[in-house]
Amino acid sequence: MYTTHSIYFASSENMQCINDATVDLIVTSPPYPMIEMWDELMAKQNPMISNALSGNPAFAFELMHQELDKVWAECYRVIKDGGFMCVNIGDATRTLNKEFQLFNNHTRIIESCLKLGFINLPNIIWRKQTNAPNKFMGSGMLPCGAYVTLEHEWILIFRKGSKREYKKDSEKAIRRKSSFFWEERNVWFSDIWEIKGIKQKMNNSQTRERNASFPMEIPYRLINMYSQQGDIVLDPFLGLGTTTIAALLTNRNSIGLEIDEALKPAIRDNIESLQINTLNALITERYNKHLEFIKKREEQGKEVKYENANLKCKVMTSQEVDINLY
Description:
Layout: E1 5-8, E2 23-28, H1 39-45, H2 48-55, H3 57-78, E3 79-89, E4 92-96, E5 99-103, H4 105-116, E6 118-129, E7 136-138, E8 146-148, E9 152-160, H5 169-177, H6 182-188, E10 192-196, H7 217-226, E11 232-235, H8 242-249, E12 253-257, H9 264-272, H10 276-299, E13 306-308, E14 313-315
Parallel strand pairs: 1-12, 2-3, 2-11, 6-10, 11-12
Antiparallel strand pairs: 3-9, 4-5, 6-9, 7-8, 13-14
C-alpha cells in the first residue's frame, strides 16, 4: 500500500485545503496558552492578547483559547463520523501581576470540543520522566507558600459521532491487519503513560529556540490505537513533522498544517533525511519486543495458542493472527 503525505504552510483556523468529513484521525499538540514561549505567536492572531497579559491574565487566557477554538471547529468539520481527535496539551503555571497561578488548558479545550459536538472519551495522563532533583516550587520546605510541580501533560481523546462501522469484508480485513499485539494493548490503553520527553532546543532556528515537539512514541501509539492502515491522519499544528513520520511508520496517509513558514527547511530536513534502514529498524524493534514477550511467557510455562502466518510468530489472541507490519 502506497501512502501520501501533504504539508501546507497555512493557518489551521481555516483549513480550506481539506474537504468536509475526509480525515480519519487527528493527532496534534497545539501551542499551550499562557506558556511564555507562545505569547508572540498567539498575539499575532489577536493583538489584544499582549495587553491582556499584563493587565488581565484571565482574559488573556480566554483570548488565546478563542483562537484555538477556531481550529477545533475546523477539526470537527474535516473529521469523519466515527473518527478520533487526540490532543496533547499541558496546563500552565505562571506568575503575572506578582501572582503565581495555574491555567487549566485541558479543561478549557474539553469544554470547547464538547460544545462542538465531540464526545470526550477517557483521557491519558502523560507523566514525563525527569531526572530533576528539585521537585518543589515556591518556598521550598516552608508551609503555606510552596506549590506542586507539574510533571504531567494530558492527551485528550475525542470522537466525532458514534463508533466507526465495518460493513464490508474488505474493511474488516484492513482492520484486522492493523491490529496491535496483546501486550501493547495492555500498555497503550492505560490512562497513565510514562514516556521520556525529548530535547527541546532548536539549532539554527529563525523563529524560536524551542520546538515543543512531542516524542515519536506518542503519535506512533495514538495512530495505531485509533486508526487503521490506509487512513488519513491530520496534524493541524505540525511543528517539525513528528506526526508525519509516525504516519509513515504505520502505513497511514497524512496531512500537516504549519503556520510558521520559516520552519519549512527544518521540516523538510527532518523528514527527508530519514533513512529507510532507520525506519525499518524501528518497526523491527517492535516485532522483536513481541518475540521476546512470547519467549518469556512460554519459559514461564504459559500457553500461547495462536499463530500469525504473516509475521511467522505466535500471538496471544485470535484478533492478532492477521497483523501485518510493513
